[in-house]
Amino acid sequence: MNTNLSNYNRNLKLNTSIENRTIYSADYAELNVFETRQVAESVNLQFSFPIIASMLTGKKIMHLEGMKSFDFFPGESVVLPSDKKMVIDFPLANSKNPTRCLALGIDPDKIKETVEIFNENTRIDFENDQHSFDASAVHLANNQQVKFVLDRIFSTFLEDGKAKDALLDLMVKELIIRLLQTKAKVMLLDNETLFDNNRMAFIVKYMREHLTENIQVDKLADKACMSTSNFYRSFKNTLGESPIDYLNGERIKFAKKLIQRTNSKFADIAYKSGFNNTSYFNRQFKRFEKITPNQYRKLVNDNIS
Asked: What is the pLDDT of residues 186-234, one digit of tens each?
């Protein structure tokens, strides 16, 4: 990990002293490294995708809904579902000894794909498991296998080379399988089991395949063979957000990939992602990512240059 931090420090660009964010992107994962250089309290952080956060240096005090507050130290990890709000204190951070944490976001489709492969070969057992499960968040205080894989993923994100994405794909799959053997497995499986024998699976698939089209809620309701009001209520109860919020979230994920891979104008990216209005695209991007599209592009380009 010391080598990883040395390579990270070499390219570090500080824009703020509290939770300065550096982004590294791959096909099915996004690595965020956060650095804080002053004491701070009640800092809010939230991601629109499932993440595993791991401490690198320093100490945080984590406040998560449904859990007792806990100290978060290097070598420990926290697994959180999409849109889980974190409130964080930084009691020891300073410029000489900054508090650093990585947050690895994983594409839900990659989680689902890996779970299916794992389940084909090793049937996931709940009945004989001794863990006390909480699908809202999981604190892994001392899991060396998970830490080892995260260290390798961090190192690979910092590398250049044609095999980088292929290696990261394998490592992310390994990380998911390692997590499926911990108390985090219920959280990872939660989104998938929501869709068991549920027509919402068809609707979500349709939305993902038609992101750039003008999708109306009443059209989705027709495809689900439901009234608009019943469909809206069922969708929100199943996925925890409205159909339009879910659709916008998927469009923003697609837009991020276009920003990473092209130099297209934001108006073109907005249109290709299914937004007819650039201003609305900018607002939604800021809502989901907490930064503007231009700031996101700058963060991505800073780590390529």
From this structure: 666 655 544 443 577 788 888 888 988 889 999 998 888 888 988 888 8
Give just the sign of the alpha carbon dihedral 96, 149, 154, 105. negative
Query: Looking at the DSSP assignment, which residues form a beta bridge with residue 104?
Result: 31, 52
Is the pTM of the predicted complex or chain greater than 0.70? no
Q: Which of 29-43, 79-93, 257-271, 290-304 has the lowest mean pLDDT?
A: 290-304
Q: Whole-angstrom Cα distance, residue 284 to residue 72?
A: 31
Q: All domains of the chain, ordered by start, with CATH?
A: 1-118+134-190 (2.60.120.810), 192-240 (1.10.10), 246-303 (1.10.10.60)
Own/partner pairs, 109-112, CB within 8 angstroms, 24+ separation:
109/28, 110/28, 110/29, 110/169, 110/172, 110/173, 110/176, 111/50, 111/176, 111/188, 111/191, 111/192, 112/191, 112/192
DSSP 276: S
- Give CA–CA dist 59/114, Å, rounded: 32
Where is average pLDDT lowest: 21-30, 102-111, 191-200? 191-200
